[in-house]
């Protein structure tokens, strides 16, 4: 039976919502990072590698998706870098990282659905990393780079509720219209014996409509093999990413206002708690109501 997108979202099991306090707890547990969520030396080296041949044509590829979809392997394939990538029952990428290749800088992000990293914390991390990348590119080249988002799926798994939740959360990281500058990339193309259309055949109408909303359409990538076919898939992916790239994505309108308002409320709750104006548990409750998602 056909099911529209909203009906599917209502039925989908979405991960528990988290609050702004989760972001602060995560930051408190991490080493101090004065320059933002990305390592400054790593970012500088990646920008240098990406702009060595042509500083005027830098493309930033934002890799997002659920845990285990192959984001880090995709970054390695696009840039010939060596970010940690392996099969694991647990999430391998726990922080944003960058890798640079000729004309391309990949921003690798942790996956949605990792119980050790609340959704709100991940959203905030992605926004901060994008600011860092744009700032570093501006400093190195004197001009803002173009950004394209690759939502990474694996042909070795399925599309489901976790992806629906991730697509919704990305509105708060990249803006409501984030898919206008995005492609849906399917890794493990070697497993698609009968092509992508055959693989997606039978997908519920709501999910198929969500996938069709990617302006850049679907793309295939083989992260394992090597040869002319695999290189052609990479070249096609980069060319299409450039075609659909745009300015740095960011929340606008009501999403941006909501983030600013909730951040201000959380900051005020922490200030009052530290000043002893309200009990600790009351401040925590006040921050708990400041959920971004």
Topology:
Blueprint: H1 5-11, H2 20-29, H3 40-51, E1 59-65, H4 71-79, E2 97-101, E3 104-108, H5 119-141, E4 146-154, H6 161-174, E5 182-187, H7 196-200, H8 205-212, E6 218-220, H9 228-244, H10 253-274, H11 280-288
Task: Quickly count the helices.
Answer: 11
Average pLDDT metric: 79
Give the low-pLDDT segments.
7-35, 84-91, 281-293
The CATH topology is given as Rossmann fold
Order of helices and strands: HHHEHEEHEHEHHEHHH
- Spatial extent as radius of gyration: 19 Å
Kindly estimate the percentage of residues that lie in beta strands according to DSSP.
5-15%
Total number of domains: 1
Annotated CATH architecture: 3-Layer(aba) Sandwich
CATH superfamily: P-loop containing nucleotide triphosphate hydrolases
* CATH domain class name: Alpha Beta
Q: What strand line-up does the widest sheet have?
A: 2-3-1-4-5-6
Helix content, binned percent: 40-55%
What can be said about the biggest beta sheet? 6 strands, mixed
Class from helix and strand fractions: alpha/beta
Molecular shape = globular
Termini separation comes to 30 Å
**Secondary structure: number of strands:** 6
Features:
six-stranded mixed β-sheet; alpha/beta; 11 helices; 293 residues; single chain; Rossmann fold; disordered C terminus
Explain the overall architecture.
The structure is a single chain. This protein is of the alpha/beta class. The chain has one domain (5-251): Rossmann fold, CATH 3.40.50. The chain has eleven helices and six strands. A six-stranded mixed sheet has the order 2-3-1-4-5-6, sandwiched between helices. Strand 4 (146-154), helix 6 (161-174) and strand 5 (182-187) form a beta-alpha-beta unit. Helix 2 (20-29) crosses helix 5 and helix 10 runs antiparallel to helix 11. The protein starts with a helix and ends in a 5-residue tail after the last helix. Residues 7-35, 84-91 and 281-293 have low confidence and may be disordered.
């Amino acid at each position: 039976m056909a099911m529209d997108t909203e009906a599917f979202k209502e039925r989908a099991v979405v991960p528990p919502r988290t609050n702004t306090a989760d972001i602060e707890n995560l930051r408190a547990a991490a080493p101090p990072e004065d320059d933002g969520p990305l390592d400054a030396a790593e970012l500088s080296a990646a920008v240098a590698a990406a702009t060595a041949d042509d500083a005027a044509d830098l493309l930033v590829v934002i890799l997002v998706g659920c845990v285990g979809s192959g984001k880090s392997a995709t970054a390695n394939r696009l840039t010939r870098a060596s970010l940690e990538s392996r099969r694991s029952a647990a999430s391998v990428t726990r922080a944003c990282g960058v890798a640079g290749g000729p004309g391309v800088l990949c921003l690798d992000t942790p996956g949605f659905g990792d119980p050790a990293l609340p959704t709100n914390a991940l959203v905030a991390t992605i926004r901060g990393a994008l600011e860092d990348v744009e700032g570093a590119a501006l400093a190195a080249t004197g001009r803002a780079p173009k950004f394209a988002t690759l939502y990474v799926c694996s042909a070795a798994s399925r599309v489901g509720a976790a992806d629906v939740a991730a697509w919704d959360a990305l509105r708060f990281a990249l803006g409501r219209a984030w898919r206008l500058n995005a492609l849906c990339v399917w890794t493990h193309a070697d497993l698609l014996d009968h092509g992508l259309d055959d693989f997606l055949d039978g997908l519920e109408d709501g999910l198929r409509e969500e996938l069709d909303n990617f302006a850049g359409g679907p793309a295939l990538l083989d992260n394992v093999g090597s040869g002319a076919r695999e290189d052609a898939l990479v070249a096609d992916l980069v060319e299409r990413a450039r075609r659909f790239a745009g300015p740095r994505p960011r929340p606008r309108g009501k999403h941006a206002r909501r983030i600013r308002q909730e951040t201000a409320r959380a900051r005020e709750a922490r200030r009052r708690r530290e000043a002893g104006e309200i009990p600790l548990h009351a401040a925590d409750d006040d921050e708990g109501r400041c959920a971004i998602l």
